[in-house]
Amino acid sequence: MRYVALLMGSIAAQLALGGIAEAADPRATELTYEPWTKTCLTEASCFVAAAARGQCAPSGGTISISPQTSTRALLTANVGTRTMLEGTISLKIDQDEPMQVARTHCYTLGCGGTLEANGELIERLKHAQTIVVEAKNLTGQKISLTFPLAHFSQTYDGPGSAPKASGQSSNEPQREHTEAVKQLPQCDD
């Protein structure tokens, strides 16, 4: 089940990372935040995600929550960058102390990581105003995304998208997004 959650987090990252903010190109800081959505791969396997997209690639980032049980979920955060990160990715809910995503991994369009969330953390997200994803890349550029949590609770507890009918490819949205990302101009270094 953990591999399914990691796969869902990776899919969410790929769907959003065509675009975080690399300060060298102002188009990377012109972010559009998408609302929270709940996507179901099967009736029992859903995730809730939000994305920030820039005007060039790579920029933006994603955050997703994949419920595992009624009291446990995996929280995945991804940031768009061409370089490795210095340290970890941190998550800060409102004015709370930051939480560190200890094990990050990098790929072509960015870096990400996952941490386990208990029921208390999920409830905190449902009542908070924002969650901030922060990281610093090896060139010293700070990456900071502030995701509003308005409608998170309703989305998390509400119905998700209908699972794909048999015969439809679950990779189709990812393939379509990958094609759209290829159309974005590359961010200047």
Please give the largest β-sheet: 7 strands, antiparallel
Q: Give me the number of helical elements.
A: 4
Overall mean pLDDT: 82
Instruction: Tell the overall outline.
Output: globular
The low-confidence parts are 1-23
Order of helices and strands: HEEEEEEEEEHEEHH
Structural class: alpha+beta
Oligomer: single chain
Structure notes:
The chain has 189 residues and is α+β, with helices and mostly antiparallel strands. The protein contains four helices and eleven strands. The strands form two sheets. Strands 1, 2, 3, 4, 5, 8 and 9 form a seven-stranded antiparallel beta sheet that branches. Strand 2 and strand 3 form a beta hairpin. The longest helix is centred in the first third of the chain and has 15 residues, at 2-16. Residues 1-23 have low confidence and may be disordered.
Which keywords apply here?
189 residues; alpha+beta; seven-stranded antiparallel sheet; four-stranded antiparallel sheet; 4 helices
Topology record:
Blueprint: H1 2-16, E1 32-33, E2 37-42, E3 45-53, E4 61-69, E5 72-80, E6 89-93, E7 99-101, E8 104-107, E9 110-118, H2 119-127, E10 130-136, E11 142-148, H3 152-157, H4 172-183
Antiparallel strand pairs: 1-3, 2-3, 3-4, 4-5, 5-9, 6-7, 6-10, 8-9, 10-11
